[in-house]
Amino acid sequence: MYSFFFCSVEDLLIHDLYVLVALAEQQSDSERLKQGITQVLSIIDGQHQPWLNGMDLLEDAQQSKHLLSTGCERIDFLLQGGLREGHLTELVGPSSSGKTQVCLQVASNVAKEYSGSVVFFDTGNSFSPKRIEQIVGQLSDHSDIESNKLIEQVMNNIVCHPVFDIFTLLDVLHQLESKLRSQGGSKVRLLIVDSISSLITPILGGSGAQ
Q1: Residue 194 pLDDT more than 80?
Q2: For residue 169, which of 130, 205, 203 has the smallest C-alpha distance?
Q3: What digits encode the pLDDT tens for the residues 148-170?
Q4: What is the mean pLDDT of the chain?
């Protein structure tokens, strides 16, 4: 027969609650313990999303996630419709394979087509306003005056933050979160880091940017 003795709340919490439930069932005088464990488990379950199987996750991804077009039909096709809001999409490739150009293309299209802003974290001085202007000009079929207004609108919707180490990135992300919470109505539709490898590699001890 097992007996229970806990010197503190910490002693109780470091034990496996499900094991304690099984042991408590064997005790005739452990009703209060069982009630306490039940309450703790209820609180823990309330802090987490319910378990989802594969079909649940697929339906959630297909139905409730808004898709953001990249502005390129072939890339949208590969992504089964575009970028999913709330999801992480990683673009991988060797140096000079066009990753930054894709990022600029996506930033331009999202800033043009969707209400909200695009936050672009530039880790290697790769952000090019001139290239954004060219992309928007190619996307527009309006007159020069209207095209200039569209370019200005897109530029205003893209916020570029130069960051050169992971700690600065994390700090800016925390600041961005606080700012969005305080502003309420403001919405960031897309967040781009170009590129994350140049921030992570120094921490891992490597020397390459890719």
Answers
A1: yes
A2: 203
A3: 888 888 999 999 999 998 889 98
A4: 79
Q: Rounded to an integer, what is the distance from CA 118 to the centroid of its chain? A: 13
CATH among 3.10.20.70, 3.40.50.300, 3.90.79.10, 1.10.3720.10 for 90-204: 3.40.50.300
- The token duo for 147 is 């095209």
Domain boundaries, the chain: 9-46, 90-204
Q: How many CB atoms lie within 10 A of CB 149?
A: 13
The contacts of residue 101 (CB under 8 Å, 6+ apart) are: 131
pLDDT bin (cut points 50, 70, 90) of residue 176 is confident
pTM for this entry: 0.65
